[in-house]
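Before the break, one more example. Copy the sequence into your notebook; we will annotate it together after we see the structure.
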Amino acid sequence: MPLLLDAPTLEDILSTGAAIHEESECHVAVETDKIRLRTQAEDRTIYFEYSLPRSSPDVSGDAAPDSFWMKLDRINRFLRATGDGKVRITLPSETPDRTSIFELEQLTYQAPSLITKYGHRLPDVPVSDIATTFSIRHGEFAQAITAANFIGGEVQLQINPETSCIEFAAADPGGDDFTYVVQPEQVKQIHDSATRLTIPINILRDLKQNIPPTTLVTIRITPHYVQYTTTFPTTDSTLTLYIAERLGAIPDGKVP
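Here is what the structure looks like once it is written out:
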């Protein structure tokens, strides 16, 4: 049986995922208890995972588990042509030609599943010791990325839990630099040890505009990557980004 998802919620989810991969290619897994979307930037510096429980008020229907790849930007173009309401989604396993069907009122869009030529590879969830954890509004994070974008392609995070200091900085060979310090009253939590890490911001420039600025995000900094987690666009869903440091990348895992 088809799934029913709230149209604006689905558009918010897909818009965020589409910003990660240049061709907006994403793996979708409809599991017995949740729906998972996963994709990875082509340079393997950012890994996106979105999880929505099937018990959520925004989801209904008893579709059987399924797993497939699709292009998110094409689905988004369909959703932008619709209004509010529930999107009826027929999964590839329920159609003879492995086609996903999206329907809302009089509109219908059929999306063929992607056939991978060389095997899209997604990483296993990275495992690393956490060095520092803090929570701030997404607006603070987005403002720092916007400022860093004027300087170059990466930003350095420096955290000192003892002083509740969170600092974003960037510099270029010509001598231009910037520093953005999150005010202590904007820091909701901060603990563990002092640390710093430099990450690329090429994809974050596009991603940051999709998340409301008041959304609370938790950022965990490990020796090799930044883990960005928030509940968006619904309180029962989880959006997680793993952002690799500039000298490394998230390693490939198994092919789904």
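The mean pLDDT is 85. The two ends are 23 Å apart (CA to CA). Try to locate both features in your own notes.
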